[in-house]
Automatic annotation (TrEMBL):
Residue span of region Disordered: 373-461
Matches recorded under Gene3D superfamilies: Endonuclease/exonuclease/phosphatase
Origin species: Sphaerosporella brunnea
UniProt cofactor note: Probably binds two magnesium or manganese ions per subunit.
Domain named GRF-type: residues: 491-548
Cofactor(s) needed for function: Mg(2+); Mn(2+)
Keyword Magnesium: yes
Low complexity composition-biased segments: 396-406
Active site: residue positions: Y152, D192 (proton donor/acceptor), H298 (proton acceptor)
UniProt name for this protein: DNA-(apurinic or apyrimidinic site) endonuclease 2
Ligand binding (Mg(2+)): N9, E43, D192, N194, D297, H298
GO molecular function: DNA binding; DNA-(apurinic or apyrimidinic site) endonuclease activity; double-stranded DNA 3'-5' DNA exonuclease activity; lyase activity; phosphoric diester hydrolase activity; zinc ion binding
């Protein structure tokens, strides 16, 4: 039985508004649809207090979370493992080993005995290490056969954080390298590295190189660090699985700028990876992206481990290797095996969830026959006499409301703003003064009193109606012309209506509305749109909304 690992940025926040997850809206259904056995999420952007039963108590799954220590609603990584396929023997938070394990208060991971820690920690000062691990960017799980690192590296959007970003990437790769070379461990790294490895991995690579006057794509510190970590670099110890299976595939992107509508045109970048140490590359049978699955501005990436793997010339079932020793034999779970406790970092072991059960699971266990038997007497026990009472009250209240309505005079209609601003004519005005005033508004006759009143002759009524009658359709059309939205301009290249946006860039034009071509940016990037070339993608039409006549 194969084992699939999936990584996905952002999908933990609100994935259920997209198909196919919107049909059942549960993580259990999502994981089954992904056919995944280990799922790593990045950018969870939640705190521990925000966890719900639906997130933690997923039937058949265990979960591990790390949260930012200082900045709230930011970063965050989560790993889910399928109980029927795998169970880690150790789990750690962070990459430096300086965080405090829940099982040993007052200590650090790296200070624990070698039998209780995973190892391979980079050499850092305590101050630097705690800073790097303060944002909840990594989880490390030991499955026995390999060490899994789920990570979310900082993005390169703020130049003031470049030093932190480079330091985190260097510390992460140092931990990986030490696990492989010094600890002799197999390692799998999954997550959003926020690094596009080669020019082929970014739609706008050429224009970015021109903008920053770059000679080589890999001259940035983080790209250089990733290149040194990966084969075929002579110092490389890891393999980029997706690129190994698709070495020259174009457009294999995993992230898109959805604010600029770049996903339909596939103008994105490949920054989400599944890496494995070179000594276990043969353990994988496939790796790919799932660009058609929605849920965030990223798409899932997966890699599948073969059912059997070669260790020292012997074929071993993968399930025997990714669980506590003896739990599986030849891929079969041993019912007599005494399962050890899950790692203390497992969310099911935290006091908030250790004695709880997902309420949906509780209701699943109630048989449908029992529910039917319980509800049937309830329906039969309803007293028939209670049905008629509300009807009597309804009759009384409805009659009184009708009477009240008949006593309220109906307001007259109006055509002009002048008529709207005029003071209302007093109800005490004499009939003669009311008839002498010129009538320009459309109105229905006032509700007459229940007492007798003088009725005008038919001839006088006809004259009055002719004087006050205005075509309501014509009036509506006139008002529609005043208040209707102006039609959007049409772009010259495609002859299609444009889309209106508002600039959010700081400066003189902040907050100004403008019109531009509604088509998405193409795979060649924004430079094609700005060049004025006519293509099937976005053209260079631009007009300020205030400039439209």
């Amino acid at each position: 039985m194969a084992l699939r690992i999936t990584t996905w940025n952002g999908a933990l926040k609100n994935p259920f508004s997209f198909q196919p997850w919107s049909t059942q809206k549960t993580f259990e259904y999502m994981f089954d649809t992904l056919e995944a056995d280990i799922v790593c999420f990045q950018e969870t952007k939640i705190q521990k207090k925000d966890l719900t039963d639906d997130m933690v108590l997923v039937p058949g799954w265990d979960s591990y979370f790390t949260f930012p220590k200082l900045k709230k609603g930011y970063s965050g990584v989560a790993v889910y493992t399928r109980n029927s396929k795998c169970q880690p023997i150790r789990a750690e938070e962070g990459i430096t080993g300086y965080l405090e394990p829940p099982s040993h208060p007052g200590k650090t991971y790296k200070s624990l005995p070698s039998s209780d820690c995973i190892g391979g920690y980079p050499e850092l000062s305590k101050e630097d290490a705690l800073l790097l691990d303060s944002e909840g960017r990594a989880l490390v799980l030991d499955f026995g056969a390999f060490v899994l690192i789920g990570t979310y590296c900082p993005a390169s959007v703020d130049p003031t954080r470049d030093a932190f970003r480079i330091a985190f990437v260097e510390a992460l790769f140092c931990r990986v390298r030490k696990l492989v070379t010094e600890c002799k461990r197999r390692v799998v790294v999954v997550g959003d590295l926020n690094i596009a490895r080669d020019e082929i991995d970014a739609a706008g690579a050429k224009e970015m190189m021109r903008e920053f006057q770059m000679v080589s794509w890999k001259e940035t510190p983080t790209r250089d660090a990733l290149d040194r970590l990966l084969a075929p670099n002579k110092h490389g110890v890891m393999v980029d699985l997706c690129r190994e299976y698709f070495p020259s595939r174009l457009g294999m992107y995993t992230c898109w700028d959805v604010k600029k509508n770049k996903r339909p045109g596939n103008a994105g970048s490949r920054i989400d990876y599944i890496l494995c140490s070179s000594d276990m590359q043969s353990w994988f049978s496939e790796a790919n992206i799932q660009e058609g699955l929605m849920g965030s501005d990223h798409c899932p990436v997966f890699a599948t481990l073969t059912p059997t793997v070669n260790i020292d010339g012997k074929q071993k079932n993968i399930l025997d290797l990714v669980n506590p020793e003896g739990m599986f034999r030849s891929g079969e779970r041993q019912t007599t095996f005494n399962v050890p406790a899950k790692p203390r970092l497992c969310m099911r072991r935290f006091p908030e969830f250790s004695q709880r059960q997902n309420i949906k699971e509780m209701f699943r266990k109630i048989s449908s026959t029992r529910v039917a038997a319980t509800m049937a007497p309830a329906r039969a026990s309803t007293p028939p006499s209670s049905v008629g009472r509300p009807a009597k009250r309804l009759k009384s209240s409805s009659s009184s409301s009708i009477l009240r309505k008949s006593q309220i005079p109906k307001s007259q209609g109006q055509k002009t703003l002048t008529g709207f601003l005029k003071p209302a004519v007093s109800n005490r005005a004499s009939p003669s003064s009311a008839s002498d005033a010129p009538q320009t508004d459309i109105g229905q006759p006032r509700a007459s009193s229940l007492d007798s009143c003088e009725q005008p002759s038919s001839k006088e009524a006809a004259i009055s109606v002719n004087q006050s009658m205005i075509d309501p359709i014509e009036s509506k059309e006139q008002w529609d012309l005043i208040f209707s939205k102006r039609r959007p301009p049409v772009c010259e290249a495609h002859g299609e209506e444009c889309i209106q946006l508002v600039t959010k860039k700081p400066g003189l034009n902040h907050g100004r509305a403008f019109w531009m071509c509604r088509r998405p940016i193409g795979p060649e990037g924004e430079s094609v749109a700005e060049s004025g070339r006519k293509t099937e993608w976005r053209c260079n039409f631009f007009k300020w909304a205030s400039d439209l006549q």
